[in-house]
Amino acid sequence: MTREHFDRIITLIEEEELTLGKACKKVRDEFNVKGISRGAFHCYVCNDKELSSIYARAVRNRTEAMFESLIDIADDSSGDKRTILTKDGREIEVEDTEFVRRSQLRVDTRKWVIAKTLPRKYGDRIFDDEDGPQVPTVSIVIDSTNKNR
To answer: For the chain, which domains are there?
Structure first.
């Protein structure tokens, strides 16, 4: 793997929102070379802080773009209905349940990936510091001085 391959993979991750595996495959095809894989990519960047930082930024940017796409997917109702022809020759509109289910699956999958990739920002847990997730707590104070019970 060369720096040119690395740079192209980063561009594909950031701009086309490809996964690392798909970006590596596309670079293999574009450059007509073998040996570019997820494993080779990780070996190439593992001991280089600058390259690791560039890759981390690309993954963050892709994740942010995925987050923004959630609204677009949820708002897209263009395929929610389809027209069918009845036995008596009338055209009627019916819900395209496959399209609706696919849209829900796309949203759910992206939400899961986003929460796993950027848990501090999009995860379900609350992070107060760098020590890890904090469990929300509730304090109960009992006033024992109230004698009118």
So the answer is: 3-134 (1.10.10.60)
